[in-house]
Amino acid sequence: MQDKSQLEELIKETVKRIEAKEGRSRSRTADEQLRFEHATRVLIVDLWKAVRSTPIRESSINKRSGWYSENPRYRDPLLTYKQMIAVFDGLIKIGFIEVTREGYFDRTIYQGKTTRFVARDELLERLQGLYGHPAISIKPDFNAETIILRDKVDDRKVLQEYDDTPATERHRANLKKINSCFLKHWCDLEVQDTEVAKLEARIANHATKQPIDFSQRTLVRIFSNGSFKQGGRFYRGWWQNVPSEYRKYITIDEKRTAEFDFSQLNPHLLYHSNYKVLGSEDAYDRVLDGEHRKIVKQAFNAMVQASTPLKSCPEEIDMSGLEMSWAELRDRIIKAHKPIADHFFKGVGNYLQFQDSNIAERIMLHFAGMDAPALPVHDSFILHHGYGESGEVEEAMRRAFYEEVGEHISKIDEEIITWDYRKDKDDTLEANTLELDAVLSANGDVSQWQDRHGLWYAQR
């Protein structure tokens, strides 16, 4: 393919230019040369993905030698510290990259930050000029570990080695089925070309969102606190970095989608695990008589996740529109949920996440068996809208909840949106009932989305 040949030529040229700049007195051994060329490929490919991200992101490199030998389960076996640094330094010398932030590692607390860098003018222009798209041309490494175990050591998250068990092997096999389904389809984000700059600014100003990298088409499953009974949620899909107001523009194989969400999942799980009855009244509405539901939900979940009493409001919760203190809101939630009040601030959130991740796995496997991607965003799922209209999604979600928990869920929220990409007089996006195919034929201002789809169908 043309895009691959252009990329290969760039990698080969880069290797030669770095070697010419090095002026080595002796050649590398065959093994060293293999690893040197592999490191060049890894860095050039990541830089290509970076310049095609929304917004353009920085690349990073870990310059601590021990990082390349620690936790071999999670490392690329061909990457070595010596050759990665040789390529990195060489890219700087030939003017291909520049460092945007120097990394560091504090050995007293075993914490630090990686070095970040971006492509400079010549390489940037050449990467932007490569035919194709890295999300389509570069296939994921199916040998990379997808079942990740983390623990907390001195308040820092660290990777943990582990011995495989029937459970971890089952998790890995199930995730391989799910990821294989995802890779057979093209999921994209269809926003107007003129909206892209607004989306980039929205992501850049968000505290937790990372740039959208369409090459992140598969998931990993991350377990917490050194236990395969805690956490277990699915991460690293590009759609998980899409701000909530833009998720309605996600398409699957050019078709519009719907997002389906369990209503009050954490309260249901917490009440049931403690043999209590949640009741028919909404778990969040009951706190402030139906007002400020979003803030109440955030606070409830923070209180479930915390292992110590939260004396101050968590940073991610904006209480500016609430005429009460954090202490008052916290006490109102405790009062509204007396049956489970003694389970707040006990760190049970990771146990609940394990349950909801098992439910999510069941749902994604169900649809993978139908050759239909079900894209997870925490406890919601984005699917082709037709599965919602037929009732298939609700049935699958109810079944998965019952199989995991042993009781029926009372409510599932569903949002199916159709929209028109043409702008109205106020220069805003306005929802209406146009079918997506009609919208596409009537508008020519979603060229980035159309270009990616064209490349996807061309390589199939």
Would you summarize the structure shown here?
With 460 residues, the protein is of the alpha+beta class.
Largest sheet: 6 strands, antiparallel
Low-confidence stretches: 416-443
Number of strands: 17
Kindly state the percentage of residues in helix: 40-55%
Defining key terms:
alpha+beta; 3 domains; 460 residues; 4-stranded mixed sheet
Characterise the protein shown here.
It is a single chain. With 460 residues, this protein is α+β, with helices and mostly antiparallel strands. It folds into 3 domains: 1-131, no CATH class; 146-272 and 349-460, no CATH class; 273-348. It is 41% helix and 16% strand. It contains 15 helices and 17 strands. Strands 8, 11, 12, 13, 14 and 15 form a 6-stranded antiparallel sheet that branches. β3 (104-106) and β4 form a beta hairpin. α1 (2-22) packs across α2, α2 (30-51) crosses α3 and α11 packs across α13. The longest helix has 22 residues, at 30-51. The radius of gyration is 24 Å and the shape is globular. Mean pLDDT is 90; it is low at 416-443.
Topology overview:
Blueprint: H1 2-22, H2 30-51, E1 59-61, H3 81-93, E2 97-101, E3 104-106, E4 111-113, E5 115-119, H4 121-129, H5 134-137, E6 147-153, E7 156-159, H6 166-183, E8 187-189, H7 196-204, E9 220-223, E10 231-235, E11 250-252, E12 255-262, H8 265-273, H9 293-305, H10 326-336, H11 349-368, E13 375-377, E14 380-384, H12 385-389, H13 392-405, E15 412-416, E16 419-423, E17 429-431, H14 436-442, H15 447-459
Parallel strand pairs: 6-9
Antiparallel strand pairs: 1-5, 2-5, 3-4, 6-7, 8-11, 9-10, 11-12, 12-14, 12-15, 13-14, 16-17
